[in-house]
Structure formats: structure tokens, C-alpha cells
Design goal:
alpha/beta, Rossmann fold, globular
Length: about 280
Amino acid sequence: MLTGKEYWNEYYKKGKQEFKKAGLLKILEYLVRKILNENMINYMKLNYSSYFLWDVLFTRYLSGSINRKVIEIGSAPGGRLIKFHEKFNMIPYGVEYSEHGVKINRENFKNHNLDVKKIIYDDFFSKDFQKTYSNFFDIVFSTGFIEHFTNIKRVIYNHLNILKKNGILIIIIPNLRGLNLLLATFFLKESIAKHNLTITNKKVFQNLFDKEEVALVYCNYFGIFNANLFQTKKRGLKSYILRFIRVYVNRILNLLFRILFKEKGFDSSLFSPYLIFIGIKK
């Protein structure tokens, strides 16, 4: 494993910075309203990759999932599970082995009137967890998880073990190649060592999934530039540069990509920030 519990505890302690609307951002939004229209402001706020994932891919492949049990592996802070519930009426579960991650996840569930007991404080790989929840879930989902391990086959096996027959497996990893690798190295070179870069290739990634165990539904790169993929140290010039990109550049690009590509999407091994696999357990 390339990251440990201490790393994730510190990660969730820090949390993500919330940025106030600076004067320049207000001017930018004013110009968008005047030149385009009010709806375009929403296009700016939502990263194009997130739009394509939730409103195109998930809408296409998860429609009709009412009351199906979905679990996210490494679920903190819980926003994605809340969205699965609100958008598709799923029953959300999470498993998290970071104490601070569990605390945040449960607080978010409580604030959305969801059952906090469905956030399981346990090691996903433990024998007890795998035995208790064997063949239990309708949908097993993880994002930014399997690339932190070297024994990927074992990680995927554990995903499939808790998934029902004919259940849906969804795994997303960052595409740390091309432009993304250059930028990740520039902002925080140490972060690269925490990722298994050998799987960030579509063919290699797809071949991780045994065709005898899981039927391929969809596998591809998706999205275009997303500054949230990158990390920096808490203070310093690079942190200010990354903040500027997230607050201003990302919003402008979100708007442009939404207008240009709409629901057609964009996939590129050099520029897309993510790879996704969707399959059905046999």
C-alpha cells in the first residue's frame, strides 16, 4: 500500500479550502450574465469532468437504481454518496478506516438525514468486513482508491467479493499521464510516489478486470483539465498559483468545455483527468 492511515487522517483533518468570492470572480460572473445568461453561471461552478460523470455516464448506466444499495470504498467526506442518494434514490453505505474521515462522513450524513450507521468504520480488506458484506451490495464504487496499491488484483477481488451477482462495479482512477503528470510533478512531486502509475493507461487498466468475473460495460478516459487533481504544500507560491487556477481558470474552462463539448464528452490519454471502468459482476 502506497498510503497509510496516518496520511488519510491528516488529509481529512486539513479538509479542503473554501474560497470566498473575490472581486475578480464577481466581475467574471457579471460579464457571463450580461453576455450569455444566468444558467451559464452554473456551468462555471461545476467542473466539466463532474458534469460528464454524473449527468451523462451515471445517468446513462445507473438509471433505474432506486433503492439499490451502493457502497463507496474510502467514502469520506461523503459527498458522492449523498449525491447517489439524491440523484438516483440509492441507499448509501460507506466504508472508511480513517477516524477523522469517518467523523466527517457521519456528520455529512446526519446533516442530510441519512443513516450514520451505514458509514462503517473498518478496514475494507479485513476478513470480518469481507465476510460480513460478501455479495451484499448492488453497486460497489471507488474513486481515487485502487491506484494507491501495488497488488491491484487483490484490491479488485475485494471490490467484487462484496458485490452481488449482476451488480455494478464502478472504479475511477486519476489519469496521471501527459499534461496531468507534468502539473502534478510541478505542484507536489512527492505526491506522485503515492500512486501506482503503471495502471494509468486505458489498455492496462481495462485488463485488470478478469473477463470471467466481470463483463465490461464501459471503460475510457473522461473529462478535460481539472485543477482539483493536484496538490501543493499548504503555503508557498505554488499554493497560490493552484488556488488561482482553481478559482478562476477552472471556472472559465468549465464554461468553455460545457459549451463546446456538451454531453458528447472528451477523452484523451494526454489531457483527460480520469479513467473509469464500469462492469457487471458475472
